[in-house]
Amino acid sequence: MENELWRLEVGWLAAYTTDRQVVKNIKRSNKDWKVMAEYMINGKIKATQFKIPVKDRRQAERRFGVKVS
Question: What is the rounded average pLDDT of the residues 17-39?
Answer without folding.
Answer: 94
